[in-house]
Fold this sequence. Notes:
Layout: E1 3-8, H1 13-24, E2 29-36, E3 44-47, E4 50-53, E5 55-56, E6 67-70, H2 74-86, E7 90-93, E8 124-126, H3 130-146, E9 148-157, H4 163-178, H5 210-222, E10 228-235, E11 242-250, H6 256-264, E12 269-271, H7 283-286, E13 292-299, E14 306-313, H8 317-333
Parallel strand pairs: 1-2, 1-6, 2-5, 6-7, 7-8, 9-10, 12-13
Antiparallel strand pairs: 3-4, 9-11, 11-14, 13-14
Amino acid sequence: MGFKVAVIGATGNVGREMLNILEERGFPVSEVVAIASRRSQGTEVSFGDKTLKVKALEGYDFSDTDIAIMSAGGNISKEWSPKIGKQGCVVIDNSSAFRYDPEVPLIVPEVNPDAISGFTRKNIIANPNCSTAQLVVALKPLHDAATIKRIVVATYQSVSGAGKEGMDELFTQTRAVFVADPVEAKKFTKRIAFNVIPHIDVFMEDGSTKEEWKMVAETKKMLDPKIKLTATCVRVPVFIGHSEAVNVEFEKPITADEARDILREAPGCLVIDKREDGGYITPIESAGEDATYISRIREDSTLDNALNMWIVSDNLRKGAALNAVQIAELLVERGLIQPKKKAA
């Protein structure tokens, strides 16, 4: 028995990836509907070997739809997710619109699957920020083993986190540098080609950016409210794959070898950690892969019970589309939803 699934924002980077992953993982669908704004109506997108014509969100009736996976931005989600939820369709939202709402579960299935039962209050489930998702996948098993006190993280985030415009800007700027054309910055605040920008999202009153604040708030909500976290989020000239240099202080002693063994057994994690040239993961190897990769695990000689590590993942997949589909799978596996329409 299959579920009717709508992908909203189907023409964007993440929306297309959601369609790919639904098909790749064999999610039990009776029908998939591609939805976007009115200006994209009639555009064609792929779902496996099928071609779907995009329908307009405005006026679409979700009353016979089981799951809506939303990747259309915060403002659209704020307006539409509650309306869709009221029609009895469960919304899995990839924006930040509902992540901090106490009545909306924020879920990474490897980290806090039991929290999903709270979705019935609003029929909305939030997908975390891409940089937080990979961080908590790697840290949850270590927190269970030795209790995390404090995290210091510096991110190296790819331009695809800023959407297609971000990827286009890196490409056009790089080409402009090579042919000695003027380099224009439109999407980013400074040139991104052959540069790094320590600024993602808007600035807050305390000098941190919204992206840094998101990592703090989401880690506390999903992992443990007692954890202290400080982040510096940086955009780098990489197309796909976010990387993080992470320092973690624990309450209990834990060695690098123990951490390596724990992470090797942990769901969603893949340890690639040889102390030799190339014995670690970089973003280019993570692109198109589902795992959260952990490398460079070592003890911090300046602090008791502390480790350093390097965490890399495809931000379009685990950071967004894959996690959303895994949430849908969790709803089905736990019997939390049933198809409204029996497949013919």
